Amino acid sequence: MSGNKLKESDQSHNHLSPNSLPFKLASRGIKPDSTVLNIQDIQIGGSGVVVMAGPCAVESLEQLLTIAKSVQTSGASILRGGAFKPRKSPYSFQGLEEEGLKLLARVRKETGICIITEVMDTRLIELVCDHADILQIGSRNMHNFALLKEVGLSKKPVLLKRGMSATIEEFLLAAEYILKQGNHQVILCERGIRTFETSTRNTLDLSAVPMIKNLSHLPVVVDPSHGTGHWWMVPSLAKAAIAVGADGLLVEVHSNPQEALSDGAQSLRPDKFDMMMKDLIKVAQAVGREITLQDPVM
Ligand code: PEP
Ligand code: MN
Fold first, then answer.
1. Can you tell me which atom of ligand 1 is nearest the CA of 56?
2. Which domain holds residue 126?
3. Ligand 1 pocket mutation, candidates 162, 191, 253, criterion most atoms within 8 A of CB
4. Please, are residues 26 and 179 in contact by the beta-carbon 8 Å criterion?
């Protein structure tokens, strides 16, 4: 049946295309121009590469303020920090919760840096919105459709992390849940997937970046900290992420990783973060981009 034979150019391992039906609002087939989000005076999805950095968990005012000032000086424009932590064990530190949100808001006021923090529960969306500039939906909640629908009703930008076992199709359909509710401010985050490999915490799927950029107009950022689980691997993967087209990075930084209440092993010390940022500026330039810098308020 020669009429049914695929042309060579049609043969593909990937059944997805920018015009694939499953994605409507997330699809580049429907919106060819890349989405550029404006968060305060920071653009995500444009020519600049935005670096979000900070501790895995907010632990104290002193810890957060010290890290915020240092990552800001090194060129990060958004501070990350978890107040509600999705821990494997219910006996592990669960975050400072509302107190952590207050500390984030206080540090934002003192430094002018924008805040991203995770929301895990529909009942807490309003509270988190009152303290943060960007809502983070964690990997474990990518399939929590009630939560996706509810953040879709909020007016805040949402950074959606890829589920650790989610295909790209499932990831984009999760984004679709948020978009469908009317919130078009969605950032996608590749943070590593589970494979047979055990030497790294996850396998950072950098091929997801060009694939998603081909399929969707949404900004894509990469988290090399959760993607590898090892602080010393973070700078290499961060450089690679920019080279493959990421619009930003989400990086864990801690002044005293040995004492960190979560994810110390994958947290960069501020001096190492600073060195990495200097390298990232060069990589960004090499691929026709620049790191988005925000002047400290002080
Ligand atoms: C985090 O960013 O601290 C986090 C818990 O990430 P993930 O949801 O990717 O595991
Ligand atoms: Mn973490």
1. 3
2. 37-85+94-291
3. 191
4. yes
